[in-house]
Amino acid sequence: MTFLAIIVALIFSRVWGDSNPLRNDSWFFSLQSTIRGLGFSPSVGFLIYLGIPVLACLFLLDASESILFGLVWIVLAAGLLLYAFGRGQYANLVERYRSYCVTGDFETASHYAQSVLGMEFGDEAIVSARQVHMAIQRELLYMGYQRWFSVLFYFVVLGPVGALFYRLLQLSRLTPERAEAERLLYFADWIPARLLAAGFALTGDFLASRDSLVSSVMVPEETAGAVLQTVGRAAIGASDYDDEVLTGFLAKEAVSETTELNALLSRSAVSWVVVLSLLVLFL
C-alpha cells in the first residue's frame, strides 16, 4: 500500500506542480498561535503543536487501514505525502538567481537571498561576491533536498506521519521556535542528506567526490546544506577560488555551477525515487 500511495502522490504532484491545493499551512500556524497563547514554555509548546497533528493522523491512518481493502489508507497516505512535499516555486527561485549570475549582479543577489530566500548573513553586513554565491548555492541545494528527498525518505522509513512530522519541522523554522526546530532538523537531516550526497557522487564524478563524501560521514557535525554543497561541487568538478576573484570570472563560473548542480539534483532525484520505490515494493 505504501508503494501505491507514493505512485499516486507523485502522479498528482506532477499534475498539480507548484499549485498543489493541499499545501495550506494556515491551520498549522493557527494551532501554534493557540498553543502559544496557553502559556506553555517555548520548548513544551513546540512539542505539543507538533505532536497533536502527528498523533491525529496516526490515529486516522490506523483506523482506515482495513476500510475498503486499504483504499482509504492509500488516499490518506498519498494526501499526507502531497502535503509534505516542499513549498514555493523552486525552479523559478533557481532561475532567478541564475539571472543575477549572468549579469554578475551579486549585490542584488544578496538582497534576494535575504528578502526572498529568508537567509541571514549575521554579522557579515558586507560580504564578497564569492561569499554571497556560496551561501545562496548552499541554501538552494538544501531547499531542493528538503522539498522532496527527505520527505520521501521519512515516508518510506516511518510512514506518512514521518513525512508529515518532517514538513512540520520545516514549517516551524518560520516561527519563534526556529531554534528548537533547527536543532531537531540537524538530526533529522543527517542520514538523508548524506544519502542524497551519495547520489550526487554516483550520478556525477564519483572519483572526484568520493573523498568529500567519506569526509561528510567522518565529520558528523557538518550541516546538511554544507554536505550537499561540498559533495555536489566535487561531483560537477567545480573549481575553488578565493574572495579576490574577478566578478566577471565568478559570474561565468556561478552560471555554470548553478546549471550543473540543478541538473545533478534532478538526476539524483530520478535515481533515488526508483531506488526507494523498489525498496518499498520488495521489502
Summarize the structure.
The protein has helices spanning 2-16, 26-36, 42-64, 71-84, 90-103, 106-115, 129-158, 160-172, 178-203, 206-218, 224-235, 247-282. It has 283 residues and is an all-alpha fold.
Q: Residue share in helices? A: over 70%
In the predicted model, the low-confidence regions spanning at least 5 consecutive residues are: none
Q: How much beta, percentage-wise?
A: under 5%
Count of runs of 4 or more consecutive helical residues: 12
Helix/strand class: mainly alpha
Distance linking N and C termini: 12 Å
Shape assignment? globular
Biggest sheet character: none
Beta-strand segment tally: 0
What features would you highlight for this structure?
12 helices, mainly alpha, 283 residues
Word description of this protein:
The chain is 77% helix and 0% strand. Helix 4 (71-84) runs parallel beside helix 8 and helix 7 (129-158) packs antiparallel against helix 8 (160-172). It is built from twelve helices and no strands. It is globular and about 60 Å long. The chain is mainly α.
Secondary structure layout:
Blueprint lengths: L1 H15 L9 H11 L5 H23 L6 H14 L5 H14 L2 H10 L13 H30 L1 H13 L5 H26 L2 H13 L5 H12 L11 H36 L1
Helix pairs in contact: 1-4, 2-3, 3-4, 3-8, 4-8, 5-7, 5-12, 6-7, 7-8, 7-9, 7-11, 7-12, 8-9, 9-10, 9-11, 9-12, 10-11
